[in-house]
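Teaching assistant's notes for section 4

Start the section by putting this record on the projector. Ask students to predict, before seeing the second block, whether Glycoside-hydrolase family GH114 TIM-barrel domain-containing protein will look compact or extended. Collect guesses on the board.
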Amino acid sequence: MCEIIRRGILSAGLGFAVLLLTLLLPVQGAAQSFDRKNPGDSYGVFIGAGPEKLSAMMKYETVVLDAQFFSPEDMKQLHQAGCRVFSYINVGSIENFRPYYQKYRDITIGAYENWDEEKWVDVSHKRWQKFILQELAPAIRSKDVDGLFVDNTDVYYFRHNRKIYDGLVKILRGLKRQNIEVCINGGDSFVSAYLKRGGSFHEIADAVNQESVFGKIRWDEPEGPDRFGKNTPEERKYFQDYIERVAKDGGEIYLIEYTEDPALIRKIRGYCRKHGFVCYITADLELK
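Reveal the predicted structure now:
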């Protein structure tokens, strides 16, 4: 369902469970009509949650959810609370619980490690491009969301070829033309290639959300404190170089970190404060 954490593993960080207490940094320019005195109330990620979590969402300035499970009235309530709402949209893979799974199953190209219900999609296929740009994105936009949280451009890491690259370029440029904010979740391989080839970041997106810059998920460990570790200095530098490059090109930067380590949390918050980034910190891999 989400971003690949690479350098030794292929993993994802978004799905379904219980939202835990978060530590965040302020979002500049976000709505202020709701009473938000806690510096951790800038950015809330609820991709696995449904409308039953509306009250919890309302304290955040920027909220990420999956609009396919919410009504326009739900969005109205969030906007009245002063929230800026981004909806999850999966452009590079497809989950078997989506109503359109069977229709596009024939153009999947491989299993998604650690997420058995999900498969990578051939984004170069015109059927898929048409579906994303002419059906799925407009349906999500009709819910009156403010932006799209675009996941799994990492299909370019899974299948590293020009066809996949060109397919992603077409999809992302098409989304940008729909007059809506676009935040790419992860996407380091694709975005870095796009910038290296002389492209401007704002041609394809407005922001990047990067998972696990500092922390590491040990997928072989059972659920619990031992499942969370730290990236090596080399791994951390790789992702820092990526997000700082995007920021230099004018992109907004968001982080999601999975950890319960107080010292690491302080380090993450200090880094984000220094660079003007926003971070969501949780011990729940499924973000409900």
